[in-house]
Batch of 2 targets.
Target 1
Amino acid sequence: MGSAHTSVPRWPTSDPGLDRTGRSYAILSFGPDARPTAEGWHRQVVELGRPVWARHGGSADEVLAELAERVEAARVGWRLMLAGPQADVLAARAVATSGGLLDAEITLLVTDDRHRRVWCSHCDTTTLAEVATGDVTGCSGCGRSLLVHHHVSRRNAAYLGFMVDAETIDGEAV
Amino acid sequence: MTTLALVVGHSEEIAPGIRELSFSRTDGGVLPAHPAGSHVVVDCGEGRRNAYSLTNPGADPREYRIAVLHKSDGAGGSGHMHSLRVGDTVTVSRPRSAFAPVSTARRHLLVAGGIGITPMLAHARDAVRWGRDVDLIYVHRPGSEAFSDELAALLGDRLAETTDEDEFGRLLDKALTGQPIGTHLYVCGPGPLLDRVLADAAAAGWPPERLHLERFVPAALDPGREFVARLARSGRDVRVPSGRSLLDALHEAGVAVPNMCRQGVCGECKVPVLAGTPLHRDEFLADDERGAAVMCCVSRSKTETLEIDL
């Protein structure tokens, strides 16, 4: 498949700068590497005199649950700024877009992409693992060895994983 | 170009200066279906062709319904439309969809000015039929409230109608700052209204991706600077003088380009650009198409030479 058509995100790895066109803002950062940039955005929004809700660090699950509530209540004019590892940014972005946000309303900064959320196409479990695309990782649900495919679901915020040895029996190709 | 030979089935003045017309096949058969917000281009005699929004439901339609505002200062096309009576024949294009509801929208905010109500009537009927969340702000001159009764019955308190510019401003401000994220805005009406809605929406933080517009009355275009169209396939240069469109200049040089609305709306006359910078004045091309194509009916060139793939 041509790289121009891959679903694997290629998001900014350096500060893309504050989107100044918003009327109010939400800023989330995940992990220590992302925090300085996100705090910089926060200061700039305060200087603009616009409302801002921010969360830095904390439990990712709790932050995402709170984000879903904020998205539900958000009015057009709202901007979401996300900074952190790709797996967290992807998950937060999925929450936002399922609530109706457009790419134009989301600014992203990815601080590292070592970890991947891998969705098992056999048992429907998603596993967070330190694994590169094209490598193999174990499924935390069914234990199968999953090949991490070059395909990302924006909706599920996960890479597609499937059984690496599905066409072999006892180590023999069939 | 595919056109339909239709017959007028209904012709009635529904408000001062506004005539509603319907067109059907002579055998009463089903016409091509279309999404809400579509338009057709109607032959208005003497080479004039005007685009009109379809107000009828678009699923298996047996008639196309339009409403025409009589413009005494126009080229005469609307006067011709007002002279049509039941039984007259008309040449109508197939429907074009350039203003359809966004299927993923959480809510649809419609803003209509004057005769710009016509595509909004189609949107409102479609939204109610399919249970979509919809609000309409309708501003018009006193006494020319086309479709008011039907809209009030359809939308109830989701219709805000006014003839007062200040009240319109207040309604717009409130609507622009109170929509749930996921709302898309659609606006149709005269140029100054569109410009105002777009500017106010941008100031309220609406990204362009949420704003959809239909310029009912095309912006008055200035004659523009002279430039040269270089035809890459034949190597010919065609001079495009100030005041003449690229489309007309090409025709005079014997190069036929399919065209229909001649207002930068329908998309028929799109020509690929190979070199030079187009001066875009159309409503058709998306931003990411503007580097490599030009609508030759209205657009010109910023550079002295525009090389096109003809």
Target 2
Amino acid sequence: MDKLEMVDLTEKQKKTRRWRSIAIGLALAGLVVVFYVATLAKFGPAVLNRPF
Amino acid sequence: MALIDDRNIDDAPFRMSEATPGDYIALLKPRVMSLVVFTAVVGLVAAPGSMNPLLAIIAILAIAIGAGASGALNMWYDADIDKIMSRTASRPVPAGRVTPGEALGFGLVLSVLSVMTLGVLVNWLSASLLAFTIFFYAVIYTMWLKRWTPQNIVIGGAAGSFPPMIGWAAATGSISLESVILFLIIFLWTPPHFWALALFKSGDYERAGIPMMPNRAGHASTRRQIFAYALLLAPVGVAPWLLGYTTLFYGVVSLSLGLGFVWYAWKVLKMPDQDKAMAPAKSLFGFSLIYLFVIFAAYLGDRLIAHLTGLGA
């Protein structure tokens, strides 16, 4: 069976992909923080007032 | 043998991106974004009432991302003409570091994200204004007006004028005459600012086929129109004080700036046709940046002092 042909990334492609991945991760983390903070700011302690 | 086995991977239109996060940040036009953030902050802080500071920061962030998204959509559509002009040739799309499709996707995702964030977390009036601003800049200005009429930046300038109004709407949930005046200051400032640039960069715009005022109506007509807009801008800049919204401090600053703007525009009006260096146009362009920054900073300072001391105008 023939060996599966793969795309070999250059060092530059690997490096920029890594940087893009880190940037996407940071952006997503930032979005989580934004919505967490906004939830607290909008509802305050009332965020815990919910029926069980 | 299956067909797929006969195909070489090199035949596929495969392209691995070499774009850095910096290229994507460049798509957001950070310099334009900084102006948007600044004017939106002024609108938000100057508005009456109080807003939760965390929500205020989120509102400014959403407005900034929305403005950046419209910049990315602009770079997606304008890659062909950006490649021709010296000022824009090194942007990520014309330089080939980001594909047009990637820029389009990036712009669309950020547009939806910024508008929805502002709507859900702040209010839907400001979100609607932000959505309209993105649409106006990307579709009305970039796709339609820019390549069609020398009035492109006059009408398209509305997109850059909305941020203080969006900031105001984020804080109050409404639109008022004060926020409309802030809109008008940027709206009337835009034509003389860009036409001063277009005068000494007219060769670039001509090569790209963009119908800017100097290469359609001529330099003399552009100089007259710059002066006319300066005459309109100066009193509108002073209007917040004349209408009693600010203190004398703002009145003095805005009046001085307005007179300075008219003076620089007068020098442009008197610039000879054969003047190739165009120093007066370059001076006006530089002063126009100072004008906008200082007049909004003065408005912000005036309103902040009024808030902190509890004294209205």
